[in-house]
Amino acid sequence: MKKNILAGLVLAASVFCYALPAGYGTLKLGMTVDEVKTELKKNSDFGYLGDRDVTLSPRTKDILIETDASRNPYSFFTRCWFQFVDDKLFSITLNLNGKRLDHYTVFASLVQKYGNPATINPQRAGWEDDSVMMSLERPLTLKYIDAAVFKKMQEEAGVQKTVEEKAVDDFLRGL
Question: Rounded distance, CA 109 to CA 111, Å?
Answer without folding.
Answer: 5
